[in-house]
Structure formats: structure tokens, C-alpha cells
Amino acid sequence: MYPSSEIYGGFAGVYDFGPYGVELKNNLKAQWWQKMVYERDDIVGLDSAIFMRPEIWEASGHTKGFSDPLMECKDCNTRSRADKLLEDVGIFADEKMSETEINSLFSENKDKIKCPKCGKKNFTEIKKFNLLVKSNLGDFTNDNSEPVYLRGETCQGIYVNYKNVLDSMHLKLPFGIAQIGKAFRNEISPRQFIFRGREFEQMEMQYFTNPKDEMEEYEKLREYRWKAILDLGIDEKNLKWKKHKNLVFYAKEAYDIEYNFPWGFNEIEGVHARGDYDLTQHSKGSGKQLDYLDQESGEKFIPHIIESSGGVERLFFAIMTEAYTEDELGGETRVFLKFKPSLAPVKVAVFPLLKNKPELVDKAREIFEALKKEIKPMVFDDNGNIGKRYRRQDEIGTPYCVTIDFDTLVDDTVTVRDRDTGKQERVKAVELTSFMKKGIYESGNKIL
Ligand code: GAP
Question: What residue owns the CA closest to ligand 1's atom 22?
């Protein structure tokens, strides 16, 4: 990962993903799509646009209520989130508190709280700051007086397409709509690297239920998402559920799944029971009927929604943290990324033992090309000694390295070296593809 616009000094809260980063990110998104769409007969996919009519954000409550408590240090002008500074000294606060509530909580504790930059305790009053990012798309006024917003969450695109999808796919309740895409938030203090960014990706699934089934389906979804995260190779001891203490008024229940990051447990995704709030609001806002007719009972009602909402970057960060491993190999300390093989950015590296022996290079190329038809992505590396080539692959978490040596030319076998154990074994070249498929996709979690 690189900071966005790095050669110009970086751009706060925005990051670019390099060649290996994009592979890992794509694998995480593919695993999510696999679990949330392909393995479910009751969930379909969607790709809605980033830009939507501004009325959508009025109806959803975002133009008024989607804000964080902002305050400024009077000495160095650093802006901070008041709830986060309170949290840092062990006082529960969150963005859902009113201005009055958070100002009074802050004044009760003001002696404990310092500016994170200059250390002074001289702050302005706390004001709510709206997180929606504005743009001038289609707004040709000179003062941007008719702004449209970059979406603050992807799920609004799902709610406003509920009727389209229902009618075109002839679905019956309960059913879900899943989407992966960019979201934008004017975060006051983007921090902890990609954990809290201003531009990020969400993976959201909205599940439409009969109101009487909402809480039962909610429990099922919680369990399903927990298992899907474990299936990424995360150790269960590094995960926990956190129940929201301060619910938004329409929510019935909300839980976060938290991961044990280097600084402690923090949210990677949320599972929320949202009732009929979203469809009711969009029905009022658009003037369109968004209710559902149950063909069997003849009942008409607005479906209740449960959602699972995760951030790609946060999951990425969790997976990197989980994979980071140090051990001793050949008497030396080694650092490597112990990804579940199906998630690794590079699956297999192929090496000719010596770069200056054309017969070895040609044979290695032949094996590389044959394997590449089934296993992706792969790298071909003939640079430096074999030990160094292994270490390069360990550092990026490549599960297998294949070396072609002089014996290969005689008996058509190759050396396969395992990332986690460093052990080497001889495998027949004709059996290499099935060997790799088994090792990389053994859990049945086939990606790409
Ligand atoms: N539709 C519900 C919703 O958007 P949220 O808790 O605001 O709920 C859901 O966001 C997920 O999106 C979070 O669990 C997190 O993984 C990710 N997320 C939210 N804000 C983020 C940010 N500023 N940077 C990176 N990821 C973020």
C-alpha cells in the first residue's frame, strides 16, 4: 500500500494498493462474494452507482444525522473527534450522542484530555460535523449550491433498487441483495493507517424479511458472518462480538465483529437489525410504494431489513496482522506472511536453479506456463541464489516455490518448497497442477 499522491506529500485518509495489495484485496472481495452470493440461493448481487439523487441522503437521514463530534485545539488548531479522545481515556462516548450530551460529558472530564498534537487542554466547543462528501456533478452553479454527494455507505443503492430487483428477479421473502463498492466519508481524523480512511470499500448485504422473522434471521446472519470470517484463516481468539450500547432510534439490535489489531480490539464489520426504517423513509421520500405482497397470506407490509456491513480495508488490515509471523529457519530469524493459501497474492513461484543454463530456464518456463493455466497469479524468478528467492516469496506469503534443477531434466520431477515449514519434497512435473490445486484450494474455498 502507498499513501495516495505520495510524491506530492500524501493525501490524508486515502491509500493506493500496489501489485500484491490489489491481489489480496481482490481475493478478500471474491471470498465475500462467494459466501454471500454464490453459496446462497436467496441472495443476488448488485452494482449501483456511486452518485445518487441528493434526496436519497435526505430521506436516509444522512444530511442531518451522519456526523461526528468535532472540536479544535485553540493553540495548534488540530481538529479531533471528541468521542475518540474520550474513549482514549476510558470514557464511553460515541458519534450518536447529541451535541449537548457530548459537551457535558467532555466538560466533566476535561482535565484528563489533551490535544494529541501539542498536549494542551484548550479546546473549542464540540460541534457536530457532517461526514458526507460533496461534489459538483451535474451542478453548474458557481457556488456549488446544488451539491450531490459521494455515497457515504453502499447500502442506500440497495434500498433504492429493492423494487427493481424484486420485480425483475421474481424473488420471495426472505431474500438478500449484496454489493461491493466504494464509500466516502469526510472523517475528521483519519487514523491507524487504512483502518479509518476517507475513501474505502464496503461489502454490504441487505436481507429483506417478513417483520415476524427479522430477529430469527438476524441471529442466523450473525452466525453465518462469524463463520465466513473464520474461514479466512483468522484465529477465533482474535475475534469478538461487541454489542452496541447506544442504538440509533430505529435499530432493534446491532453488533460489531471486532478484530484484535496491534492497538487492541476494533470493529471490522457490523451486523445490524434495521427494522422497516430504510424502506419506509425511501417510500416517503420518493412517493413510491415499497411494500411487499405476500402471495400466500395476502398480507402487505414493508419488509424489515437486517444487514451485514464490512470494510474491505479493515479486513485487509486484519488479515495482514493475522498473517504476520516470525520464526527461525536454518538458524536465522525469518519474517513471513502466513496467509491461507487461497488468499495469498501470489500462489506459486517457479525458479530455474541457475539463470545461465538455458536447458534449466527453458524447462522452468515450460512448467511455469503449464501451471499458470490453472493457478493464478504466479511469478517466475531467476534472480539471485535460491535461498534469497525463497525469502522474497516468504515475505509476500507465497505458499509454494517450485525449483527446476538438473534432476528435473532426467526424471521430470521438481522440488516443491512449503512456505510454512520450509520443507522440500520431490513432485512429478505431470502431477504438479493437481498437487497445487489441492494445497491451495483444499478447504473448498475456491477463489477466482
Ligand atoms: N450500512 C451500515 C454502515 O455503513 P458503518 O458501521 O458506518 O455501517 C460499516 O460501516 C463498515 O464499513 C465498518 O464496519 C467498517 O469496516 C467500514 N468502515 C466504516 N467507516 C470506515 C472508514 N472511515 N474507513 C474504513 N472503513 C470504514
Answer: 196
Q: Which of 241, 242, 265, 314 to mutate for ligand 1's pocket (most ligand atoms within 8 Å of CB)?
A: 314
> Atom 17 of ligand 1 has which residue's CA nearest to it?
311
d(Cα 200, Cα 311) in Å, to the nearest integer?
Answer: 7
- 317-329 in b/e burial notation, b at 16+ Cβ within 10 A? bbbbebbeeeeee
Please report, for residues 63, 85, 121, 139, 146, the alpha-carbon distance to residue 143 in angstroms, rounded to integers and kept in the order given: 19, 35, 37, 9, 8
Give the residue-averaged pLDDT of 304-316: 98
Q: Can you tell me which atom of ligand 1 is nearest the CA of 187?
A: 23
Contact 25, 312 (CB under 8 A): yes
Instruction: Tell me the per-residue pLDDT of 360-408, one tens digit each, with 9 for 90 and over.
Output: 999 999 999 999 999 999 999 999 999 999 999 999 999 999 999 999 9
Q: Which atom of ligand 1 is nearest to the CA of 202?
A: 12
Q: What's the confidence (pLDDT) of residue 94?
A: 81
Confidence of residue 446 (pLDDT cuts 50, 70, 90): very low
